[in-house]
Design brief:
By secondary structure, the chain is of the alpha/beta class. It is built from seven helices and six strands; from the N terminus they run αβββαβααβαβαα.
Length: 179
Amino acid sequence: ATGLSNPTRASRHLVEQYHEVAFHLPYSTTVRALVREATDVNKEAPLLICSFGFIADKYAHPPANFMRAAKKHLGDYTLVVIDHPTSAPFILDNKQPSWGGIEEGWILTEIAKQLQERYHPSSTHLIGVSMGGLGAIHAAYRGEGIIDSVLAFSPVTDPNVVMGRVFRALGSEALYGKR
């Protein structure tokens, strides 16, 4: 769904308000994202992590619309936009194919932990669309005590049919639990 909605692209000016970061997670996993820090460094601002689905990179339609709306309407939050240009960088960085909510939920939870250590937010929230929506749902139950709220738009509703379940069999039990 998000992969087909990407003809509208974000302007470079909009993206330049964020700085690029790479999160280095357990199991040699690297995830790229954009971060816009809260402006008031003296208070513990809320943290909002957004994942807009498979191949929704930082210039895609859903993140671009969100960044425009956040700039105009959202208060002083630390905002994180996960950059999913394609699965290729994830596979090259991590040597593991990974699509789907189980892995996405783990990724979002691990990123939230790192951001909480750095920013000490007053609360942590997730917004997810499509694959990111399913990931946000998985992070909600995986991240008890870490994630305060989740908003999922058009998530995959049957986790038994997502590609991540197929690829999960390729991973180790230490990462995903017993098969």
